[in-house]
Write a structure and sequence with these properties.
alpha+beta; 2,3-Dihydroxybiphenyl 1,2-Dioxygenase, domain 1; 8-stranded mixed β-sheet; 16% helix; globular
Length: 315
């Protein structure tokens, strides 16, 4: 059986202050905070999810904010750049918006496309690209109208310590197709219309250091629970150690580390973020899994209060 992921499900990163995180991704970038929960393995740390109006697969950037975290170093074994896609004709809007809020950016080009590359306050490397494909976002917030809003992921640039082996994994395990090579990068495409374009360094890169401003893992899409279980068997058959299937409340997950050092996750599309909140309430409440509910009072006391707010300058 051939396995072909539709593309990126979500990307998860480390940052420092939770309110700064909300202000940048919701306030400045206009994404919707679709879920406010905790790191299930460290309940004194938020797990924040930002995406389109429903946090659809292929749109969600997630974060573990920890105020005392050390700054990491972006390098091999990580996602180097997270790529967001915007509607055709929207880049000039985003140039003006980044300038307005004092975010330095660089206009670059590769594979015939123009990108705006910039960093968040912790140094996480991001970029915007225009494309026709991908459903438009229905979410507008602050100074970002829906017609200019980020649709979701365009893809990512992977930084591998062993790129030849990572490329084999992208093709033989994840089912991506090679479509080009340019200026030291190799481009692959997945089957979907969001989070589907992956670039990877052709030559090995020095290993990065985990910390704030770096990506923890990249998650790929599995269409169903049945499909997900088969993906786990497929990963193991290809020589990787895969975790057991883990219930993350909003998707099921398995994890494995590919040879170039990048932590891969495979996640189900279902049940999604309306699993425990109605559409109008998404991201409005601290949602805890059942086993943490008895500790809600203590957990809430240990978390820094956050709010989604319109930034000064958009008011």
């Amino acid at each position: 059986m051939n396995y072909h992921t539709a593309g990126i499900h979500h990307i998860t990163s480390f940052v420092r202050h939770p309110q700064d995180n909300v202000d940048f991704y919701a306030g400045l970038l206009g994404l919707r905070l679709v879920k406010k929960t905790i790191n299930f393995d460290a309940p004194d740390v938020y797990h924040l999810y930002f995406g389109n109006e429903i946090g659809g697969p292929g749109t969600v950037m997630t974060f573990f904010p920890s105020e005392g975290a050390l700054i990491g170093q972006v390098g091999g074994g990580q996602v180097g750049y997270t790529t967001f896609v915007v509607p055709v004709g929207a880049l000039s809007f985003w140039e003006e918006r980044l300038t307005k809020f004092g975010v330095a950016f660089e206009r670059t080009a590769r594979f015939g496309e123009t990108y705006l590359q910039f960093k968040d306050g912790d140094g996480l490397q991001l970029e915007l690209v225009e494309r026709e494909e991908g459903a438009p976002s229905q979410w507008s917030f602050g100074g970002v109208p829906a017609g200019k809003a980020i649709k979701g992921f365009g893809g990512a640039i992977l930084y591998s310590t062993k790129p030849a082996q990572t490329q084999v994994t992208l093709v033989s395990v994840m089912g991506l197709e090679i479509i080009g090579e340019e200026s030291g990068l190799v481009r692959y495409r997945a089957a979907g219309d969001l989070g589907n374009v992956i670039d990877i360094n052709a030559e090995p890169m020095p290993r990065g250091v985990a910390g704030a401003g770096t990506v923890h893992h990249i998650a790929w899409r599995a269409a169903s629970y049945e499909d997900h279980a088969k993906w786990r068997e497929h990963v193991i058959e290809n020589g990787f150690h895969a975790t057991d299937i883990i219930d993350r409340q909003y998707f099921n997950a398995i994890y494995f580390r590919e040879a170039g050092g990048i932590l891969f996750e495979i996640a189900t599309d279902a049940p999604g973020f309306q699993h425990d909140e109605e559409f109008d309430e998404l991201g409005g409440n601290l949602m805890l899994p059942a086993w943490y509910e008895p500790q809600r009072g203590i957990i809430e006391q240990n978390l820094f209060p956050i709010e989604v707010r319109v930034l000064e300058g958009d008011e």
